[in-house]
């Protein structure tokens, strides 16, 4: 059952309440390994479900366009101070609605339409908002892309430098959605400096690892940093844009009034709670455990013959090319879901198949770490994945229910935040 209880909702709208209860139980019973997902605490859920959703507060603390900001100003200021302290940045904007608008705000802050931006290609692990042709960032700007090497699955920083010198981008973005290896922020900063580009680090996936000390920080290297708050950082759906002091005003003006209207104050409050939780000593343990689990899972998958992009992982994320398993990423992901293991199909670098039917799967260990699983469980997780994929290849659909039952039996021993018996 959902925790906090949905007592009012159950009376007012039983149909919707039942659907939310169904989703709660689904999240409880499945091994959730979508690399961008997590479980927020019940405290974060409470903060996001408050009367703060009633309030309009266009502007920034102390400079609003509406009255009645006695508490909202304090809430936003507290959130900003927590973000600055936790990440060690000069400036933080906590109003960005989500990762994509946060990124667009940074384009607006520093670029004009047609300007060149250099980013990791989507096919090699970048994000749609890093200049994909289907995104506004690809339609209105001029993206040039770096990627990984075929043999190593890693970025060659010498090639990034060569491309930057040839293309002279106005902005360089590092970070992405399917990068299993450590990002070399100092090397990116050196290249950006050499070509006079703004360096933006998009740390959406790894923000929780960074503040937990399990991945190097871009602070001091990147001019601006964007992050979602709902991935490894374990907050509500939302985002932040952080910057060096000299860019504080241009970033704030781009977010509001450049791109957005009123901030979502209930989300800001949820972010404040998540930042407070991330400042506790136990969050360091969580971040270290996420990486330990990911490495243990990668090693176990390799033993089962899985072909991992770059051969392994440094962070929470694993990318596997399933070509040698004789199955595409999409049918594999569907089979795994039926077997109680939730992840997504994903392209791999140099993929010969199409984006909607690619060769690989992407998975991560943040949510299962929040649930309490450790390295000792990872060989079992890898074995279930292998069994489900083998079952899909042999069209042995009966195996899915057996595996899903075993998954649920394991997870029954690990309480889920947001769920109560
Ligand atoms: C998730 C993600 C985003 C976008 O976040 P949304 O909240 O889905 O808009 C942007 N950049 C990167 C690198 C991401 O992983």
Tell me what you see in this structure.
- Helix content is 43%, strand content 13%.
- The protein is an alpha/beta fold and 421 residues long.
- It has a seven-stranded mixed β-sheet with strand order 4-10-9-8-7-5-6, with helices on both faces. It has a four-stranded antiparallel β-sheet with strand order 11-12-15-14.
- The termini are close together.
- The mean pLDDT is 98.
- The site of pyridoxal-5'-phosphate has 15 residues, from helix 5.
Reconstruct the topology from this structure.
Layout: H1 7-12, H2 14-29, E1 31-32, H3 42-48, E2 59-60, E3 63-64, H4 72-87, E4 91-93, H5 99-110, E5 116-120, H6 136-139, E6 142-146, H7 157-167, E7 171-174, H8 185-195, E8 198-202, H9 207-211, E9 224-228, E10 239-243, H10 248-259, H11 265-278, H12 281-303, E11 307-308, E12 317-321, H13 329-338, E13 341-342, E14 344-346, E15 360-364, H14 366-370, H15 378-394, H16 398-411
Parallel strand pairs: 1-13, 5-6, 5-7, 7-8, 8-9
Antiparallel strand pairs: 2-3, 4-10, 9-10, 11-12, 12-15, 14-15
Bound molecules: pyridoxal-5'-phosphate.
Pyridoxal-5'-phosphate is lined by residues 36, 98-100, 103, 127, 129, 175-177, 202, 204-205, 228, 239.
């Amino acid at each position: 059952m959902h925790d906090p209880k949905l007592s009012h909702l159950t009376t007012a709208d039983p149909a919707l309440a039942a659907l939310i209860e169904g989703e709660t139980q689904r999240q409880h019973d499945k091994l959730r390994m979508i690399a961008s997902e997590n479980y927020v605490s019940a405290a974060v859920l409470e903060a996001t479900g408050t009367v703060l959703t009633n309030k309009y507060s266009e502007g920034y603390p102390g400079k609003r366009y509406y009255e009645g900001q006695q508490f909202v100003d304090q809430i936003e200021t507290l959130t900003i101070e927590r973000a600055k302290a936790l990440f060690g940045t000069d400036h933080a904007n906590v109003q960005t609605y989500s990762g994509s608008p946060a990124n667009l705000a940074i384009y607006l802050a520093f670029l004009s339409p047609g300007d060149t931006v250099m980013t990791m290609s989507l096919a090699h692990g970048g994000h749609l908002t890093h200049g994909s042709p289907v995104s506004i960032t690809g339609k209105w700007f001029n993206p040039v892309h770096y990627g990984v090497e075929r043999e190593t699955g890693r970025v060659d920083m010498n090639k990034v430098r060569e491309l930057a010198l040839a293309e002279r981008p106005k902005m360089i973005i590092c970070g992405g959605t399917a990068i299993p290896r450590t990002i070399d922020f100092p090397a990116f900063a050196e290249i950006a400096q050499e070509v006079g580009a703004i360096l933006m680090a998009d740390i959406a996936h790894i923000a929780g690892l960074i503040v937990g000390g399990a991945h190097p920080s871009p602070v001091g290297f990147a001019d601006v940093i964007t992050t979602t708050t709902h991935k490894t950082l374990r907050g509500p759906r939302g985002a932040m844009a952080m910057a060096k002091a000299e860019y504080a005003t241009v970033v704030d003006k781009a977010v509001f009034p450049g791109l957005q209207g009123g901030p979502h104050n209930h989300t800001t409050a949820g972010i404040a709670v998540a930042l407070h939780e991330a400042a506790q000593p136990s969050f360091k343990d969580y971040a270290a455990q996420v990486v330990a689990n990911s490495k243990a899972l990668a090693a176990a998958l390799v033993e089962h013959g899985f072909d991992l992009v770059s051969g392994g992982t440094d962070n929470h994320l694993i990318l596997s090319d399933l070509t040698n398993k004789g199955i595409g990423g999409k049918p594999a992901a569907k089979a795994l879901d039926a077997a109680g293991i939730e992840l997504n199909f994903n392209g791999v670098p140099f993929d010969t198949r199409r984006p909607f039917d690619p060769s690989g799967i992407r998975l991560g260990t943040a949510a299962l770490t929040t649930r309490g699983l450790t390295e000792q469980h990872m060989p079992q997780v890898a074995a279930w994945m292998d069994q489900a994929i083998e079952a899909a290849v042999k069209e042995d659909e009966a195996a899915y229910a057996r595996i899903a039952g075993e998954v649920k039996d394991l997870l029954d021993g690990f309480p889920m935040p947001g769920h109560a018996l």
